[in-house]
Design goal:
The complex is a heterodimer of chains A (114) and B (112). With 114 residues, chain A is mainly β. Chain A has no helices and eleven strands. Classes of the chains: A mainly beta (114), B mainly beta (112).
Chain lengths: 114, 112
């Protein structure tokens, strides 16, 4: 199993540009989530999904959209990038429909918005 | 709303010293508790978790944590740290719903 994969590893955007961060897992996990990691702020939950077709907002959802059309994929979309979205983004998954089990994290995407 | 506090933002220890990292959460109901570790340049990995039963849980690499319900705490401990324990440590809480909330992290630096 490849586990949780994320692409790209690095990305630089200009303010106002849009892009999609890709996340895929091959473990047939029900639960997937997106976090951003900022210095001194820890990990903050952006959006999560408890299964295909179901998504919900986390702590910091503004400026981000998600969809979950398949069990495997959970892309994160930035519609109009802002410098405040400069961060490291982690995707995670777990086998349970709930969040009460171990999360498996991807390697992260480092995004810079200028 | 649930929240997690890690009081030590940066800890520096010498090798063989004992370690205790604090974690407190705010939620009155039943919780699941986790400690994750992020080694330099790597992604997060689970150190240990508590769901129910014995409040003293043991994890990988000699780490353990004790759940004290009356204090809303889940402190991480290791009797003798090694240089390879240099990493950032995150406490996380799930209030038996669909969200996991992480603390802000504690950077641990071990001097050889």
């Amino acid at each position: 199993n490849a586990g949780v994969t994320q692409t790209p590893k690095f990305q630089v955007l200009k303010t106002g540009q849009s892009m999609t961060l890709q996340c895929a897992q091959d473990m047939n996990h029900e639960y997937m989530s997106w976090y951003r990691q900022d210095p001194g702020m820890g990990l903050r939950l952006i959006h999560y999904s408890v299964g295909a077709g179901i998504t919900d907002q986390g702590e910091v959802p503004n400026g981000y959209n998600v969809s979950r059309s398949t069990t495997e994929d959970f892309p994160l979309r930035l519609l109009s990038a802002a410098p405040s979205q400069t961060s490291v983004y982690f995707c995670a998954s777990s086998y349970s429909r709930g969040a009460n089990v171990e999360q498996y994290f991807g390697p992260g995407t480092r995004l810079t918005v200028t | 709303a649930q929240s997690v506090s890690q009081h030590n933002h940066h800890v520096i220890l010498s090798e063989a010293a004992s370690l205790e990292l604090g974690c407190n959460y705010s939620y009155g109901g039943t919780v699941n508790l986790f400690w994750y570790v992020q080694y330099p340049g790597q992604h997060l990995q689970l150190l240990l978790k508590y769901f129910s039963g014995d409040p003293l849980v043991k994890g990988i690499k000699g780490f353990e944590a004790e759940f004290i319900k009356s204090k809303f705490s889940f402190n991480l401990r290791k009797p003798s740290v090694q240089w390879s324990d240099t990493a950032e440590y995150f406490c996380a809480v799930n209030a038996r719903d669909d969200k996991i909330i992480f603390g802000k992290g504690t950077r641990l630096h071990i001097l050889p």
